[in-house]
Structures are given as structure tokens and as C-alpha cells.
Amino acid sequence: MLCMRIEEVSAIGADKQDRLLVLATGAQISPSWNSAGTYVYDLSPSWAIPLLLLTLTTPHQPHRKEQLQYRTAPTEDAVMPHKPSTISPDIVAGRVTMETLPGCGVHVTIELACARFSAPPAVALATFQAEAGALYLAGFAQAGDPHAAIILATDSSRGQIYHITTKLGYWAYSSSNQNILGSMSLTSLIKIRDASGGAISPNGLDALLRQVPVPAGAASGECLNWVINAVMLLHQHRVVRLSSAEYLRQEFSQYVPQNRSRATRGSYPGVKVSAYCSA
């Protein structure tokens, strides 16, 4: 698997250095393939910091440490390109882009030229896998906008889906078993609750989500509205911690279309951790 292991993540402030706990030391980050010929690594710290230093290693060269350093944007609500500064002679040359949102931290994208790696581009389809017991927003490819749902993962290959679907010309709530591995339409999973937050009963979750109002008619796009309302209800019941419903909606709408090419039986859905909802 083509990935990098996070050896150390530190936030450097004006008068002290604090470890950034949101990214666990030793965690692996895996890339998605970009048509521009780069591997893209996404990191989503939960708060903005003036300076971040990442020490990374690659599996095929475990003895070699790569370091990237970048500064956050000086103002909020800005999308600004940044180049990593050289910390060591073995630095991986790349491009860093970040987006800062008020009160919600910074989203970082690191793009590395694929020529730096010996693995073929197809390996870049490898990604994080669904975690048993974790809760996800799920995006499905279809004509027009993606279909939105909630999935409680049983393991990395299957789970229980909760969503609204159109039947006989109107929206209706539905819950059933769902393949994660081998699905021809599931393209994206955004984690909103980690398994470490405690076990969730599928039946209990079903009973709770049945309380979310189902819109009348069958107007397009209502599935995402229902999902956001469902997450808000889960927040009220302390199942998840939601910092911004609107930013969560934007996160879904921006991330899922990027994974449309994964709508094949041989591709695993793109998986990321939400920057705006956790538990």
C-alpha cells in the first residue's frame, strides 16, 4: 500500500510547542489518485495553528524520514497555496494547500509528485478502510447529485444503512444491510463517530433515526437534507459531536464528487474523518 506513516506531528506556537493530538502518532495516511498526476494526502486538524511540522516515513523506505513544514493562513475564510519549506535534505518536494474556516480549524492537502514513488498509479486507489462500529456519512454515485445516507459499519466490508429513498413517487425512510466492499455505487465514507466512542446498537440507531421527519414528495436533494437533520438529532442525543451542520454539508458536497470514479465493483470507497463531526 502506498502510504505515509505519521511519526510526529507538532504545532509550534509563539512561546511554546504543543503536540497536535488530533492526528495520532503512528497513524497512516493514504493518498487518492489525482488526474493531474499527483498523489493527494488530506489532513484535517481540528483547529488552526501558526506552524505545523510533520515527520513522515514511507513503507518502502522506513529508515528515511520525510519532513514537511507549513504555516497556516494569516486570515480566516481564505484558500491560500503554500509550499513546504526544507527541513532536511531528504524532504519530499510537494505542494501544500490549506483552507481555513472560522472556528473550525484548517484543512490541509499535501500533493506529492507520483514520480517520487516506484508504485504504479493504481496503487493510489488504496485508502483507509471502514472501521467496525464506526458511524459514517455515505455518498453514492447516481445521476445528478450524489445520494446521501448514514452507515454503521459492521466491519470493513459491510454495514447497516439508514437513509430515505424514493418509492412510488415519494420519499420513505429505509434501513437495511449494505455492502461496503464490492458496491458499484458507494463512493465515499466520512467518519462522524469513532468506534472508540462506544458501541452503537443498530436497532437503537434505527429507532432514533425514524424520528427524523421525512420530506413530502420526491424533490431531488432531500436525501442530504434528511441526513444533515439526522446528524443534528444524533448530536442532540450525544451520539456525535457536531460543530457545524452547514460545514458538514459542505464537506460532504465537496468530498463525495471527487470520488465518483470509485463507483466500480473493484474500487473501495474513499474514506476520511470529518473535520466538523466526531465522537
UniProtKB/TrEMBL annotation:
Domain of life: Eukaryota
Protein name from the UniProt record: Uncharacterized protein
Organism of derivation: Steccherinum ochraceum
